[in-house]
Amino acid sequence: MPDKTDNHVSADGIAAEASKAAKKGGLPPVHLWNPPFCGDLDMEIRADGTWFYEGTPIGRPAMVRLFSTVLKREGDKYFLVTPVEKVGIRVQDAPFIATDAEIAPDRITFTTNVGDEVVADADHPIVIRGDRSEPRPYVHIRAGLEALIDRKTFYRLAAAAEEGPDGRAGVRSCGQHFALEV
């Protein structure tokens, strides 16, 4: 196991393990992994969805995608995990940004900044936080990880909104009504 104080080794080790898992297809089973905590890594996901390592933006989209596949949330904390190590990272808001949505009559499919696609449904709800003057819309992506819905996509959802059973404007997807008002 890498030395807890050597963040370069941990970042490289996480990337190597994530790469191995990616070659097997699909997302790695991070929900099944419970390795020992190896310390915090100087990595942060900013509110705009930009990933930083040691204060510098990670410029390679493929590397960001790779790290995103081994991201795990436990309570209010976020970790990058492999079968053999777990390192803490900081997340300012949500780890992902929903940058687009395909809005069909009863199906809304979101695409995130890291290439994930998810259909809004009972397991992947759209939730609104904040207040009436500054609503903060999110969609659940996987295992407690959410994406902030970007402004342009939220405006498109609002344009497609209809009054729901509770009297609030919202959208429908997979038989569910999701209010777009706080």
TrEMBL record:
Pfam annotation, one family: DUF1285_C
Superkingdom of the organism of origin: Bacteria
InterPro entries, per database record: DUF1285 (IPR010707), DUF1285_beta_roll_sf (IPR023361), DUF1285_C (IPR048342), DUF1285_N (IPR048341)
Domain DUF1285: from-to ranges: 28-94, 95-180
Protein name in UniProt: DUF1285 domain-containing protein
